[in-house]
Amino acid sequence: MNKVKVILSYLFGFVVSVSLFLLVFLLIVKYSVFNKSFIYRVIDENNYYENVYKSIVDGVDDYMISSGLDNSVLDNVITLDSVKTDVKKYVDSMYIGKVYIANTDKMKETLENNIKDYLSKQNLAIESTHELDLFASDVVKIYNNEVSLYNMLNGYIPKIVKVNSLLNKCIVLCICVFVVSLLFLLLLKFINVGSCIMSSGFILLIVKLFVFERIDINNILIISDNFSKVLNSALKYLSVYMLEVSIILIIIGFMFSLIKNKRK
Questions:
Q1: Same domain, 52 and 142
Q2: Cα–Cα dist 51/58, whole Å
Q3: C-alpha to C-alpha distance for 151 and 147, rounded to whole angstroms
Q4: What's the total number of domains in the chain?
Q5: pLDDT band at 65 (very low <50, low <70, confident <90, very high)
Q6: HSE of 61 in the Cβ direction (CA atoms, 13 Å)?
Q7: Are 133 and 222 part of one and the same domain?
Q8: In this structure, is residue 156 part of a structural domain?
Q9: pTM, whole model, 2 decimals?
Q10: Helix 36-45 to helix 225-263 angle, to the nearest 10 degrees?
Q11: Does residue 166 have a pLDDT over 70?
Q12: How far apart are CA 89 and CA 211, in angstroms?
């Protein structure tokens, strides 16, 4: 076998391994982080709605104590259903590249009316409508901050659609490069395709170990405790997927190599 054929075989073998690794990695990312169903699954598993609702209630309680008002003024103002609805709208909007802003006008109006009714029953006069409006605005702000993650992702949300589109193009490119390189490799009949598949699995495994073993996933804290729990869970899934797929690639590659060796 001439040297050119050997060099080309190793070259296409390398390209097959790298392109398959990139293809698998990008598919894992696409169907996890960029998959809305996956995010909702992680949200449900971590009781995100309930935790956000509890954080809102805890935050509002501090204002209630300092104001001297009874908790009854919060009746029908902040509910678990409203939190679920707004969080889902926030996530849905995020995946189409739009920033969702919860409409809290009715919530604020209900709170103000409840306060007025409470003061009326206690035979107390409203000294300042400005203070009433300010109090209601503060309560609504607590709600908005928890639901919209303190607006800290707003600058990145419009880029999500672009990144997802780029991800799709990269996947198509990897498929094309992988198929063309594989065809050339098969034509050259020098390097076992199984070894290339195994190499892809080992590359994915090394990347998984290098990245996730160096990151203390459980102690990542970004934006809020509630968001961090969801992020930590998503990263753990990503780590598990990479491990499982790498093992599958190594086994498939090994079987291909075994079958080819037996035919010799």
A1: yes
A2: 10
A3: 9
A4: 2
A5: confident
A6: 6
A7: no
A8: no
A9: 0.86
A10: 120
A11: yes
A12: 32
Flag whether pLDDT at 85 surpasses 80: yes
Residue 260: CB partners within 8 Å, gap ≥ 6? 192, 193, 194
Is 259 inside a domain boundary? yes
Lowest mean pLDDT, pick from 74-78, 166-170, 193-197: 74-78
| Residues 13 and 57 grouped into a single domain | no
pLDDT of residue 212: 82
Mean pLDDT confidence for 85-105: 91
**Is 135 in the same domain as 55?**
yes
pLDDT at 264 over 60: no
Helix (H, G, I), strand (E, B) or coil at 33: coil
Number of residues assigned to the chain: 264
pLDDT class of 75 with cuts at 50, 70, 90: confident
Question: Can you read off the two tokens belonging to residue 82?
Answer: 């409203």
Residue 188 lies in a domain: yes
Q: Coil, helix or strand for 68?
A: coil
Q: How far apart are the C-alpha atoms of 179 and 168, rounded to whole Å?
A: 17
Where would I find the H helices in the chain?
3-30, 36-45, 48-67, 80-94, 105-121, 129-147, 157-188, 193-212, 225-263
> What's the Cα-to-Cα distance from 23 to each of 44, 150, 160, rounded to whole Å?
29, 35, 20
Token representation of residue 249: 């690639």
The range of the structural domain enclosing residue 86 comes to: 48-94+103-147
Judgement on whether residues 180 and 108 belong to the same structural domain of the protein? no
Whether 115 contacts 135, CB under 8 Å: yes
* Residue 61 sits in the same domain as residue 23: no
